[in-house]
Amino acid sequence: MLKELYLVPAAVYIFSYALLLFKEKKTYKAFISIIYTGFVLQTLIFFIFLIIKGLTLPVHIDRFVFFNAWILMFIVVLFSLFYKVEYILLYITPLVAINLLVGFFVPHIHLRPVILNVDKAILFTHILLILIGDSLFALAFIVSLIYIFQERKIKNKKNLKLFDKKDVQISTALHQGGGYNLELLDNINYQCLKIGFPFITVGIIMGIYLSGTLFKTFIIIKPIEIISLITWLIYAVLLHERMAKGMRGKRAAIFSVAGFLLILFSLSFSFYLFPAFHGLK
Amino acid sequence: MDILIIGLNHKSAEICDRETVSKKLLTVELRHDFANKLLDLKNEDGRSLIKEVAILTTCNRSEFIMGLSSWAQGKGGHIIKNYIAKYFFSETEKENIFYMRLNEDAVRHLFSVASSLDSMIIGEPQILGQLKEAYNEACEFKTSGQFLNKLFHRAFNCAKSVRTETKIASSPVSVSYAAVELSRKIFNGLDEKKVLLLGAGEMGKLTVKHFIKYGVRNIYIANRTKKNALKFIEESFGTAEKDCLNVIDFSEYYKFLPQSDIVLCSTGSEDYVLKYADIIPVIKIRKQKPLFLIDISMPRNIDPEINKISNVYLFDIDDIGKMIEDNIEIRRQEAAAANELVESSVKEFMNWKESLNAVPVIISLRNKVKDILEIELYKYIGDKKEKDLIINSLTNKILHEPTMLIKRASANPEGVSSIETIKALFNLESTDLSDTDKDIENENPGKYIKLIK
Among A80, A274, B41, B44, whose CB has the most other CB atoms within 10 angstroms? Predict the structure, then answer.
């Protein structure tokens, strides 16, 4: 089963949050180290599965959820190191921990794609691309939420503490430099969009191809395709507006939030309401 | 002479009210005119109420520091306050936004202001310069006299000792620092950012210095008089700092707006320099890149409506002040020590002031002794050259202890009886002291002040 292994990084992440209660510079530093330790453990577990099962499709729901959590954490760690914004770990790690707990508690159900005859490589690539794209959009979603709240604070000039002791401690501990700054948050959001969009585009195209193969026709439009295309369109418009017209700031953040909410909706829609449309029995 | 301070500041009045007062005192001429009006103010009997006046105007306060005539006691203060309120506002209830400090309270208030203990940002250095400017203006207008001279100089000394003996100014909490911190909340690093400074004032100078310290390398300065801007750079910045500064024509500042990320406005203009309609096209040209506007001028120079534009962040002097308020606590701790210094300076000044009451008694006593000596010496040495020298020397020697006693007694409310005893002992009651009083107040106060030093 090996499901119990999921609890190890999940427990590490949850424990790390307990440290934040102390509100000390040292504990903030320890918090970050523990989060990274959690990620290393998650990676180890991932490789254990890889060694045991080989490079195969995550055919069980719990594995799928675990794989999703690992990719999300991997992307967030990369961004936090590259942009020196370790504070995003503060917001993403709970999502990852929840994912791991879900992975532990869901039954070890075998997903039986009805498209076993279809090229497994395409299906695997479809899943991988969509997960990477969605993880990037999840990060963009979180960063956009931070942006919206932070921008609101600055615009309304309320609860905006310039020299908040706590903020200074977090700032020093998490190497934030200037702390939460709108330009950086907007930039991360843009990068997530720029990198995530091609992944999601190719992923959706592969999905449509797989769906066509599954239903033996490309003519019938399935609900999952409609929702996916709407989501894709939102991100396409956002990318176009950003690149061509220089849209940025709050409006771009709202778009990102809306896009990701639609992704969540389409995922729930496809997996829980109409599993058949997603090639699941 | 009584000291009266009437004024309004960031604690007593809203920004719009301060703006109204500030507008009517904006230029040197307006201040001179109002100072004269105050000096001409008379009571019901037609006597002038104010003898000396100095006007202090900063972005956070407007104050009238006055030396009153002896007959201005009682209702005088209220008459003046009423007059000032009516001069600036048509609504009668606005009188409440003005505070009034008399004598010891006034001295304490002025010393606290000078020491930056009453500032929006405790310990900020600008206020002392502004107070010196107010004093210089009063000297130029010839509206200040010996009394205010002394008061201001003591205030400057007090401020100096507060700054050197406490750490009140050591922690970086100032409008300029806050401006830089705020830009760091909007921008990711300031190295590549461009700053446009409109107006060349003290606050602008400090903020620009802070921006340079935090890595800004492109700063454009636009002042109505280009010559003044060049002089401002020459006098206020070091060689390395000058490399980051460029002076542009004020008429062309709008051309630099689209490429500027931070605009700092501190002109002396009465109207808005940047209006809502000016910024809309700018933000379009900037492709929605954030624009940070800081308005540190009073009256405000940037239309507050601009803050409603997306990706534009406007902070005026009040906004910055409110944010910093929470963090003043650190300086407040230092302020406790600073207040002790202020208190001792106030006490010293009040002693000096009270000792002025003793001057007529000392003078009559000296005159009396001198008269006696003159008569007696004449009998023995006639009208010899040395006579005056001997008289002065003897007078000083004989009266040294009694003079000290009178000074101490006059500084102490319980010492009135001692002065009365001296008066009785030397029969000074019959002496007409009013002439001496008049002499002190109007003609040559310095002569008598030397006596009590």
Answer: A80
